[in-house]
TrEMBL record:
Family in the record: Belongs to the cytochrome P450 family.
Alphabetical UniProt keywords: Heme, Iron, Membrane, Metal-binding, Monooxygenase, Oxidoreductase, Transmembrane, Transmembrane helix
Gene3D superfamilies noted in UniProt: Cytochrome P450
Alphabetized InterPro entries for the sequence: Cyt_P450, Cyt_P450_CS, Cyt_P450_E_grp-I, Cyt_P450_sf, Cytochrome_P450_monoxygenase
Protein name: Cytochrome P450
Top-level division of the source organism's lineage: Eukaryota
GO molecular function term, any single one: monooxygenase activity
Signal peptide location: none
SUPFAM superfamilies assigned: Cytochrome P450
Cofactors that this protein relies on: heme
Entry's transmembrane regions: 12-33
Length: 490
C-alpha cells in the first residue's frame, strides 16, 4: 500500500490522532530548525525565545522586558536572541550602523501599532519618503532659534508650574510631582507648537485631564511587538468589552482641544498644524499628528522632570551644589552664562535622563540586504535588531554604580567617550526624537526655576519609598500607581 494511501486511511479512521501526529511533527521540525539551523541560531540566548515570540510578548505585556533582557546580557553577552528572528544588542558600537549611518535601518513593522486614528505619524511610519515632507514642514519649530524666540511664553508655562508646586507644597499633603511635571510638558508643547496653551497647570485635582489619554497610548507598549493585524483586533476587543469611562472622557477632552485647534488654524498659519496643512495634509491626519505630539511631549518629559525633582529631594547635598551654581550665575550680570552651559545643571539633567527610564525598551529596526557585522558577529538581512536605553544606561562597566544618581560623572573632567556613546535617552540618528531640543529646554528651564526659587527645600520622599520608582517597562514607561510623590516638612 502506498504511503499516501496509508495516510488517507489513517486520516479517515483516526482523524484526531493523525492531526495531532502531523502537528507534533511540524512543531518538532520547526523547533529543530529555529534552534539549530535558523540564520541567527549562532546568537546565544535561552531556549524558549528561540522557539517562540510568545516569550517576548509575555515580558512586554507584564512590563519587565527591559530588565529581564538586561539580565540575559549579563549571562550571555552583548548579543542575545530574544525571539526566533530578533536580536537585542547591548553594545554602543551598534548605534551608528543601526540608527545613524545613511539614515539607519528601516523601523520594524510593529511601529504601526502606534498609528493614530488610522494615520501614520512622523513617529510611527516606517516609510522615510512618507515621513520626510511631514518632518521637514515642522522641524524648524524645534530648532534652538525658534525656541529662543518663544522664550517668554515657555518660561511663563514654567513659572505657572513652579507656582503650583509652591502652593501644593504648603498643604502638608503628598504632592504628585509627576502630575505637575506633566502639566508643564503639555502646556509647553501646546504653547510653543500650537500657539494655544492647554493650560494644564491651572487644573486642580489629583489627575490631569490629559493623563488618561497619555496613559492609554503608553499602554499600547504592552502589545508593541504584536503583528499589526493581531494588535488591531485586540485593541478593538478591549475597547468594546473592557471600556474605561475615565479614559474615554480624557480622549474626548483631548479630541475637542485638537479639533478646535485644527478647525481654527489656517493653512498659512506658522504653528504646527498650519505647517502640516500647508503641505496638503487632510485635517484628519493633522489632528492625528497633533495628538501624537501631545502624547509624546507630555509623557517622556513629565517623567524626566519628575525624576529630577525626586532625586534632588533625595540628595540635598546635590541640590545645594546646584542651587549655588544657579544663584552665582544669576548674579553674574553681563557675564551670566546661558543656563544650558552650566556644568552642574547640565550634569543633573543628563544624569536624570540616564536613570529615569522614560523609554526603557529597545528601538527595533530591520537589518537590510547588506546584513550587519559587529564584533565578529554577523546578523543576516531581515533580522529585527535594536538597543535599549535600559541596557546601555545601566551598564556598570560604562556607568559604575549605575542605579545611583551621580551627576558628577557628567562633569567635563569626568565624562568619557564611552559614556557619551552609550547615552541613548532620545535615540539616535535621523529617527531620533524630533522634539529633543524642546524637551531639553523644558528640563533646563524648569530645573533652574525650581532650584532658584528654593521650592524643593524641605521636600522628601515618603518613608519607605526611597528606592527606585517602580515602572512597567513598556516602550514608554508607566509608573506603577501613576504617582511620584514628595512631602514637604511643615
Amino acid at each position: 500500500m502506498a504511503i499516501h494511501d496509508v495516510l488517507l486511511d489513517s486520516l479517515f479512521n483516526y482523524p484526531l490522532l493523525t492531526i495531532l501526529t502531523i502537528s507534533t511533527t511540524l512543531i518538532l521540525f520547526s523547533s529543530i530548525y529555529r534552534v539549530f539551523m535558523h540564520p541567527i541560531s549562532h546568537i546565544p540566548g535561552p531556549l524558549i525565545p528561540k522557539l517562540t515570540s510568545l516569550w517576548l510578548y509575555y515580558h512586554a505585556y507584564i512590563g519587565d522586558e527591559a530588565s529581564t533582557i538586561h539580565q540575559l546580557h549579563e549571562q550571555y553577552g552583548l548579543y542575545v536572541r530574544v525571539s526566533p528572528n530578533e536580536v537585542d544588542i547591548s553594545d554602543s558600537e551598534a548605534i551608528a550602523p543601526i540608527y545613524v549611518t545613511k539614515g539607519g535601518f528601516t523601523k520594524a513593522p510593529c511601529y504601526a501599532n502606534f498609528d493614530i486614528d488610522g494615520h501614520k505619524t512622523i513617529f510611527s511610519t516606517t516609510d522615510m519618503e512618507y515621513r520626510k515632507p511631514r518632518a521637514s514642514a515642522v522641524v524648524g519649530m524645534f530648532s534652538t532659534k525658534s525656541i529662543r524666540e518663544n522664550e517668554a511664553a515657555i518660561y511663563g508655562c514654567v513659572d505657572r508650574m513652579v507656582s503650583r508646586m509652591k502652593e501644593e507644597s504648603k498643604t502638608g499633603l503628598p504632592v504628585n510631582i509627576l502630575n505637575l511635571a506633566r502639566s508643564l510638558a503639555v502646556d509647553a508643547v501646546s504653547t510653543h507648537l500650537f500657539q494655544e496653551n492647554y493650560n494644564a497647570t491651572s487644573e486642580k485635582g489629583n489627575r490631569l485631564s490629559v493623563s488618561a489619554f497619555v496613559d492609554a497610548f503608553v499602554a499600547v507598549g504592552r502589545f508593541f511587538y504584536l503583528p499589526n493585524t493581531a494588535f488591531t483586533w485586540l485593541e478593538w476587543a478591549l475597547k468594546k468589552f473592557v471600556p474605561d469611562e475615565h479614559t474615554a472622557t480624557s480622549m474626548e477632552v483631548v479630541d475637542k482641544f485638537v479639533d478646535n485647534l485644527v478647525s481654527s488654524t489656517l493653512k498659512s498659519a506658522t504653528n504646527y498644524p498650519g505647517r502640516l496643512m500647508a503641505i496638503g495634509l487632510e485635517r484628519s491626519e493633522v489632528k492625528a499628528q497633533c495628538k501624537d505630539l501631545i502624547f509624546a511631549g507630555t509623557d517622556s518629559t513629565g517623567m524626566n522632570l519628575a525624576t529630577i525633582c525626586r532625586q534632588l529631594s533625595l540628595n540635598p547635598d546635590k541640590h545645594e551644589t546646584l542651587r549655588k551654581e544657579i544663584l552665582v550665575n544669576a548674579q553674574a550680570g553681563e557675564n551670566r552664562q546661558d543656563i544650558q552651559s552650566l556644568p552642574y545643571l547640565s550634569a543633573v539633567v543628563k544624569e536624570a535622563l540616564r536613570i529615569s527610564m522614560a523609554n526603557p525598551t529597545r528601538l527595533p529596526h530591520i537589518v537590510p540586504s547588506t546584513g550587519l557585522r559587529l564584533s565578529n558577529i554577523t546578523i543576516p538581512p531581515g533580522t529585527m535588531v535594536g538597543l535599549s536605553a535600559y541596557s546601555l544606561h545601566f551598564n556598570p562597566t560604562v556607568f559604575p554604580s549605575p542605579q545611583s544618581f551621580i551627576p558628577e560623572r557628567w562633569l567635563p573632567d569626568q565624562v568619557n567617550d564611552s559614556m557619551n556613546k552609550s547615552f541613548f535617552a532620545f535615540g539616535a540618528g535621523s529617527r531620533a526624537c524630533i522634539a529633543r531640543n524642546l524637551a531639553m529646554t523644558e528640563l533646563y528651564w524648569a530645573t533652574e526655576r525650581i532650584v532658584e526659587g528654593d521650592v524643593l527645600r524641605g521636600a522628601r520622599v515618603q518613608d519607605g519609598k526611597e528606592g527606585d520608582v517602580e515602572i512597567y517597562e513598556w516602550f514608554n514607561s508607566s509608573v506603577k500607581g501613576e504617582k511620584i510623590e514628595l512631602v514637604w516638612k511643615r
